[in-house]
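Troubleshooting: if your tokenizer reports a length mismatch, compare your output against this known-good record of 388 residues.
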Amino acid sequence: MFQAPSLFQRAPLPPATRESEHRREQTLTATAPRAAAGTSAPGTAAPAPAAAKKRDPYFDNVKYLAIVLVAVAHAWEPVMDGSRATRALYMIVYMFHMPAFILISGYFSRSFDMTAPKVKRLITSVAVPYVLFETAYSLFKRYADDSPDMAISLVDPFFLTWFLIALFIWRVTTPIWQAIRHPLPVALAIAMLASVSPDIGDDLDLQRVLQFLPFFVLGLLLKPEHFQRVRRREVRLLSLPLFAGALLFAYWAAPRMQLGWFYRANSAQEMGAPWWSGAVMTLATFGCALALTVGFLAWVPGRARWFTVLGAGTICGYLLHGFLIKGAEYAGLFDHYTWLSGPVGLIVVSLVAAVAVTLMCSPLVGRALKWATEPEMNWAFRKAAARR
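Known-good structure output:
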């Protein structure tokens, strides 16, 4: 960022220097309007819009790699029975892949307020896709799975659409978390209370919304320097024994531990556990998930890679890969081809899921689905909201 030209004029200059300084001022004056175009104060120099809008490749890499883990873990669900090792890997991935995704969502929600343009964007990029894909998944199950009684319910999210309604609720409450003094302890307390409250019910999948809330709130509190610290070499080295220990523990716990603790969709009582275990497990899983998330973030490359551009299309990958998983399930593919549960089958399933979600994140798919994932809908909003 440079300063206004007049700030460079401190004292009379020799003729040659004055001429040089005059040329410098002309250059700065010609550049200043372009640099200040994105600022609110007229005449104040600021970075060029192109620089302000430039995406950070690190976060696009995080989002892409996280969505690949989401898709692969979903693909493992129908075929991991009977494989203790796969179940252990599944537990590790499920421990941190959604927390990492939610934490990044919180980080990029820091500037959210209830101004008209941002409310419009929240509606068009979160609420509208939720309505469209909740309807699409319900109809898909009704006809592809021969389930004529499958109802379309916008208050009972089906499969992976819960994340959209959760993101809507989290983002709407962002001003609250930014206003209170100790947001993370409060969010953890709410998550603990939710884990021991079976009467919350299934509406809007509030159990998940509340139990995953601390990760979103933590993301709101993070700053760029926190991610710089995470990416240090010593953190990467420490993450290796961390993941090794997690794998050993998961292999031991695989036949003993309920997967419901990872889904966070039910209270402790609904899983047949003592009520107090809900609060204990909320804190334990939060700590474990945070440690594994840090380990994951430490290894994400910071520079642009071939997959970096795909990070901008993760919403398409997330919303579309469920049709592939559920379609194979409805068709009886996993029941018919039992070899998919074996070592070779698990590798094939993983590769297919990874390649499929990669294609779904491509810019071509993003442009084709923009009408559903980010519609303009200026006709539905007042002029103040329509302007971005």
